[in-house]
Design goal:
The structure holds two protein chains of two kinds. Chain A is built from one helix and nine strands. By secondary structure, chain A is mainly β. Chain A has one domain. The chains are: A mainly beta, B alpha/beta. Bound molecules: coenzyme A and zinc ion.
Chain lengths: 142, 388
């Protein structure tokens, strides 16, 4: 079994690590985004959940093959919660993959955009680590 | 057979940044007018005393503190928590106990003390009502959740921000006439439409206030109502609903699925329809939330809420007056008190006791309360009927 690493999803966390989440994060660390698929009824979940919402069977981590999505909705956060208040303006985006699965993450390269985001615009999934190497996450690029 | 239950009295603290009071004093301020009407502690069988978030005060077991402070020692009490729908969740719980016959007379009181921490800290506490694993790490504050709805609504229905600003103008117009309001001032359309951005597309005037306050009502079983009032407000319909925990999992962001369900259930129980409502108090934690509420409560077809705004059908003399007390936007939003404050306002309007004639709605026979917790995870809709 892999050594239990301190990996934090996103920028702050509840730190409530489980073996399932550890597995998810280790995959993320190697640039693989994992959904989960129910071993009994094949329902798919993104972000992954360990128990199927429909039949409560085990759902297993499975690699996402899609990396391009469209912008379903967004918010430009000018006034942040305390723990992110030193971060400056950030954009939270819900992206929708062609399969219909959705993912919530930051759009990090918005400085390259000429105006505000537009619902329906293309997004690309990107993996990233914060400077200290501990916090790993996924992002959207426009 | 369930007993009929009525709201027989109510009390309301001043809403605002209340550095002169904390949770306990606010509780007393909301109960005092009820006490003064003659509903002394000995007449109350039990209570539901609630607040949404204990982080703000750090106080655990707060309902015990509240009960003790207002002299209800020995009376059974409990706290119910449903984020910003805590007030009506408390009322729903109490209704169940009274209608079932467990108690005859109950005090239901909601309070929140929010201004002892900075706005950034308050925003932080509230954002923890998002999914701690998948949403909170991305810094999705409350305004951000509703901005996600606003972006989607504006895109799907091609709506300009102007409509949202017009809702803020209305709220402040009525809040300015409500002596209990937190920010009782008129605001111009230009000011509201061009205010500083908080969570774009939502700006300062799209947001409700961070408020300290309390509100309470007393409910009684049908055979006891006469002891307290000859103007009972009957609870005719109650509907409750829920929506997905993660906002990305909602089938639509232009409606709150749990609110639609709750409204339908309340109308069904009451045997009434949206057109029978003479007024509504809806959960306008953000202007977009008020707009979506028009549609979820059946006052406008999906996508047609903006027309209601343009035609001023939501004013006190319009087709369906909404939030003529200033709403969460101008009256303020002390989370746990909000649902009770809405209930109090319907009673006031029914009794023709609005403080200013210019915000008094004419001849209210039926009123609706729509109270949403978090971004729709909890919703309670109540329908009231004038009993005189
Ligand atoms: C929008 C918000 C961030 C502004 O907070 P803030 O910048 O700390 O505001 P302050 O208390 O410092 O007040 C600054 C000024 O703006 C005004 N103001 C504050 N909030 C306001 C609001 N929501 N609408 C209009 N004016 C507001 C104040 O009256 C004050 O005016 P003044 O300078 O003339 O006295 C805050 O009100 C907020 O977070 N609201 C949403 C609350 C929420 O999410 N509730 C739960 C919803 S379910
Ligand atoms: Zn399954």
């Amino acid at each position: 079994m892999a050594e239990r690493k301190e990996l934090y999803l996103g920028y702050t966390t509840d730190k409530a690590m489980t073996p399932f989440m550890q597995d998810f994060l280790e995959n993320l660390d190697e640039d693989r985004l994992m959904k989960s698929v129910c071993t009994s009824c094949s329902a798919e979940y993104l972000p992954p959940r360990q128990h199927c919402q429909k039949c409560l069977s085990e759902a297993k981590l499975t690699e996402m093959t899609e990396s391009e999505a469209t912008l379903y909705s967004y918010v430009v956060v000018n006034f942040a919660p305390e723990t992110l208040s030193s971060k400056g303006v950030y954009i939270v985006a819900i992206g929708e993959f062609p399969s219909g699965l959705k993912l919530t993450a930051h759009i990090t390269n918005f400085a390259t955009m000429s105006g505000p985001p537009e619902v329906g615009m293309p997004l690309k999934l990107k993996f990233a680590k914060e400077a200290d190497g501990k916090m790993i996450t996924y992002r959207w690029l426009v | 057979m369930a007993r009929r239950v009525a709201v027989v009295a109510g009390g309301h603290s001043k809403f605002g940044k209340r550095y002169d009071a904390t949770m306990r004093e606010l509780t007393a301020e909301a109960y005092k007018p009820i006490y003064d009407e003659g509903i002394t502690q000995d007449k109350i069988d039990a209570t539901v005393l609630s607040y949404a978030a204990s982080q703000f005060s750090g106080q655990g077991a707060g309902s015990a503190l509240m009960a003790d402070y207002i002299g209800l020692q020995g009376k059974p009490h409990l706290r119910v928590e449903s984020a910003c729908a805590t007030g009506t969740a408390s009322l729903r719980a109490a209704w169940g106990m009274v209608s079932a016959g467990l108690y005859d007379v109950m005090l239901v009181l909601g309070v929140e003390q929010m201004n002892r921490v900075s706005t950034a800290t308050a925003t932080e506490y509230m954002s923890r009502a998002g999914d701690m694993r998948w949403e909170y790490p991305y810094g999705i504050s409350f305004p951000a959740f509703y901005a996600l709805m606003a972006s989607r609504y504006m895109s799907e229905y091609n709506m300009p921000h102007d409509i949202l600003a017009k809702i803020a103008v209305k709220s402040h117009h009525y809040g300015a006439q409500n002596p209990k309001a937190h920010l009782p001032k008129e605001v111009s359309f230009e000011e509201a439409n061009n205010a500083i951005s908080i969570c774009s597309p939502l700006n300062l005037y799209d947001c409700s206030l961070i408020t300290d306050g309390a509100a309470g009502v007393v409910i009684a079983a049908e055979d006891r109502v006469k002891e307290f009032t000859d103007r009972p407000m009957w609870i005719k319909g109650i509907g409750a609903g829920a929506s997905e925990m993660k906002i990305q999992d909602r089938p639509s962001l232009t409606t709150i699925p749990g609110a639609k369900y709750a409204a339908k259930a309340a109308y069904k129980m009451a045997g009434l329809e949206p057109k029978d409502m003479d007024m509504a108090q809806v959960h306008d934690c953000f202007t977009i939330a008020e707009l979506i509420a028009y549609e979820d409560c059946g006052f406008a077809e999906p996508g047609k809420g903006p027309e209601m705004v343009e035609n001023k059908e939501n004013y006190h003399d319009g087709r369906i007056p909404v939030n003529c007390d200033g709403g969460l936007k101008s009256k303020g939003h002390p989370l746990g008190a909000t649902g009770i404050s809405m209930t109090y306002e319907v009673m006031k309007q029914m009794r023709g006791e609005a403080e200013n004639a210019s915000r008094q709605i004419d001849d209210v026979k039926h009123g609706l309360v729509h109270n949403v917790g978090q971004s729709g995870q909890f919703v309670n809709v109540f329908i009231y009927e004038r009993g005189w």
